[in-house]
Amino acid sequence: MDTAAIPLWGSASAAAVAAGAGIAAWGAMHPAAQLFGPTIRRTPRPNALALTFDDGPNPAVTPRLLDLLERHQARATFFLIGRFARACPDLVREITARGHVAGNHTDTHPNLIWLSRAHIAGELERCQLAVAEACGSAPRWMRPPYGFRGPQLDGETRRQGLRGVVMWSLICYDWKPQPASQLIGRLGRAGEKGSAAGGDIVVLHDGDHRMLNGRRQHVVEALEYWLPRWRDAGMEFVTMDEVAAGASAPQPSAAHG
């Protein structure tokens, strides 16, 4: 027996384990990964911009955000937390009544990677029911909290009747306290890399998953700056339903002033 080869085999095994762990981590966390099931992270056209908002509804911010979006005739997708939807059903109804799409962001915002299928099913189902009870229809799309997903998620989303998992192409770290000017700078990347791959799906936060009435005013202020500029640059605002359909409904230009 060649005992000198044993350390080499051990090193190779350790390297293989490390590589496998790295691939699994990438598959669980990277927004472009498809390892654990298909996801959507781009719109069909470079000038189609999908604004998505996580962790609401939030009574402190969402109403002001809805007014701003309406002023600029921009539709968006709101990924709602079930327990907040139960606390604020009128706000959920307002979101959908204004032409936006309500999505599933689980019931309590847990990290789904290590949860059992049964636990994930419960999280998705409770959020589905909360939104449906508030506005009359259950979500068609879901976004996993933190963007983390494991191999057990794909099957459970389909079992709940959800059409797909939505990730993003642009994230701006807006859940961190910051001046609006900092977020304005990060949002300047939206639309920059639009190509044959499609346009951006932007993830923003109108709520704080830890509590209601989270401070997200900087998000509204940053969008007050960018919405008219994106419009003037020829961008169209699309919901996830429109992304899936491959085309947005015609939207007239908003008047500014």
Describe the structure concisely:
With 257 residues, this protein is an alpha/beta fold.
Which helices and strands appear, and what pairs or packs with what?
Blueprint: H1 6-29, E1 39-40, E2 42-43, E3 48-56, H2 62-71, E4 77-80, H3 82-87, H4 89-97, E5 101-104, H5 117-135, E6 141-142, H6 153-159, E7 164-166, E8 170-171, H7 180-187, E9 199-205, H8 217-232, E10 236-237, H9 240-245
Parallel strand pairs: 1-7, 3-4, 3-9, 3-10, 4-5, 6-7, 8-9
Antiparallel strand pairs: 2-9
In words, what does this structure look like?
By secondary structure, the chain is of the alpha/beta class. It has a single domain, classed as Glycoside hydrolase/deacetylase (TIM Barrel), CATH 3.20.20.370. It has 9 helices and 10 strands. The protein has helices at 6-29, 62-71, 82-87, 89-97, 117-135, 153-159, 180-187, 217-232, 240-245, and strands at residues 39-40, 42-43, 48-56, 77-80, 101-104, 141-142, 164-166, 170-171, 199-205, 236-237. Strands 2, 3, 4, 5, 8, 9 and 10 form a 7-stranded mixed sheet that branches. A 3-stranded parallel sheet has the order 1-7-6, with helices on one face. Helix 6 (153-159) links the parallel strand 6 and strand 7. Helix 2 (62-71) runs parallel beside helix 8, helix 4 (89-97) crosses helix 5 (117-135) and helix 7 (180-187) packs parallel to helix 8. It is globular. 42% of the residues are buried.
